[in-house]
Write a structure and sequence with these properties.
The protein has about 450 residues and is mainly alpha-helical. It is about 75% helix and about 0% strand.
């Protein structure tokens, strides 16, 4: 039983006592009854006040529950806005990584969408509405979050006023950088797309110059000098491309969709041409020297080149082993049947391909054939001299050698000449033809 019920029972008993005293004719019963009624009135008033207080407490509880719910809602929305602002701050300060105008345009489009999203964001307005309600009802701090409307608004405003503008400014600057890069790409491509094919055509032209010599060797040498000067004059273009490429690399630009030519390829082509020209000039100088010292004619040198070119089927300016063999056979060399081991062919290959590359270059072939021709002519000349001493006979006698040659030369010849084995040869006859051939051939003489 509650206190209120207990007091109600007591009040009821008090009324019963007052009534009983009145019935008994108690002298002061009227006063007692008035007193009881007064107490009842006070009790009724107290009950009414208690009811009003209970109702006020219920209202206060509901108000506090509503405020608590608002604080919790504020905390949730504030947390969501804080996360969104943090992500936005990260996006706006993120490094701009673009390699083309199109990529920057895409980033600018994304930035414009982001600006529209920020302008349309209603989270801060919702927090402001909740905060106004809380401020009008209570000055207590929110136990559910350390975030405040003021701090979030400051961040939001800062991003709108500075963050978005700064990002847009950096994107526009990047657009200028990419336009500059694209201009450099186009400059390089324009030069490379002309200079690269020009070098390729010059390489073919130089190959043709080596394969087809017209006029004298001196004329051909002059053409090579003119070619070399033209290539040297073009170095200005190469230097310009090198400078543009260096600028692009300094800006970390390594791609160029406007050309297939790389600066390394162009530089290597130019250097290879320069090296080949120098080599060709040296070879012509050697041929001129050989011509002047040995008497090999330019017609013979041209014949060597034509023989080489005929068997150079792929026009690579070099013969493989099988092409070289065919060339030698066409020139009258006696070699073993194809597929058999051929020491003679291997010996000749060792001369013309000392580095064992597997190929015979045109220059090495001409040097080889020139030396072969010189050796052949010299052997014939020596044999002709002995033939005169022998009186047109195919053999010579020892006393003729001793009589016609100095003592040391005569002794050398007598020691190395083999006996003549032809028909009707007198005793002691010597074979001067074999001696001459051996002297300028590959024997131990």
């Amino acid at each position: 039983m509650s206190d209120t019920d207990t007091h109600g029972v007591r009040l009821q008993k008090l009324h019963e006592i007052a009534n009983e005293l009145e019935k008994q004719g108690y002298f002061n019963s009227d006063s007692i009854k008035q007193r009881a009624e007064s107490i009842e009135t006070d009790w009724t008033n107290l009950q009414n006040l208690a009811q009003l207080r209970n109702e006020a407490i219920d209202v206060a509880i509901k108000e506090q529950q509503q405020l608590d719910q608002l604080r919790l809602e504020f905390a949730k929305k504030a947390s969501a806005l804080d996360t969104w602002l943090s992500e936005l701050e990260e996006d706006l300060t993120d490094t701009i990584n673009a390699h083309s105008i199109q990529e920057v345009e895409d980033l600018l489009s994304e930035h414009q969408q982001l600006c529209e999203q920020v302008a349309a964001n209603k989270q801060l307005e919702e927090l402001e509405s909740i905060q106004l309600t809380l401020d009008s009802s209570s000055d207590e701090t929110n136990p559910y979050t350390p975030l405040t409307y003021g701090s979030l608004k400051t961040r939001f405003d800062l991003l709108q006023e500075e963050g978005l503008q700064d990002r847009e400014g950096r994107l526009k600057q990047e657009m200028e950088n990419q336009k500059s890069n694209e201009s450099l790409r186009l400059q390089f491509a324009e030069g490379a797309n002309k200079y690269g094919p020009w070098l390729e055509s010059k390489s073919l032209e130089l190959t043709q110059l080596g394969l087809s010599i017209t006029g004298s060797l001196e004329d051909h040498k002059q053409r090579l000098f003119d070619f070399s000067q033209e290539l040297a004059d073009s170095k200005v273009t190469l230097d310009d491309l090198e400078n543009i490429n260096a600028t692009l690399q300094g800006k970390l630009v390594f791609d160029n969709s406007h050309t297939e030519f790389k600066i390394e390829t162009i530089r290597n082509s130019w250097e290879a041409l320069q090296l080949q020209i120098g080599k060709s000039i040296n070879e012509i100088d050697n041929q001129i020297l050989i011509r002047d010292e040995t008497g090999v004619t330019e017609e013979q040198l041209e014949e060597f080149r034509k023989s080489f070119q005929y068997f150079d089927k792929d026009k690579s300016s070099k013969l493989d082993k099988f092409e070289f063999r065919s060339c030698l056979l066409s020139l009258g060399y006696k070699l073993c049947a194809e597929g058999e081991e051929d020491p003679e062919l291997d010996s000749l290959l060792a001369k013309v391909d000392p580095n064992d590359t597997g190929f015979v270059a045109l220059e090495a072939f001409i040097d080889f054939m020139t030396q072969e021709t010189v050796d052949k002519d010299t052997a014939e000349q020596v044999a002709g001299s002995f033939k005169i001493l022998a009186g047109d006979r195919p053999f010579i006698m020892p006393d003729e050698i001793k009589r016609e040659l100095p003592e040391e030369q005569a002794a050398y010849c007598l020691q190395h000449m083999s006996p003549y084995t032809g028909p009707d040869a007198p005793e002691g006859a010597l074979d001067y033809s074999d001696f001459a051939s051996a002297l300028y051939g590959t024997s131990d003489l």
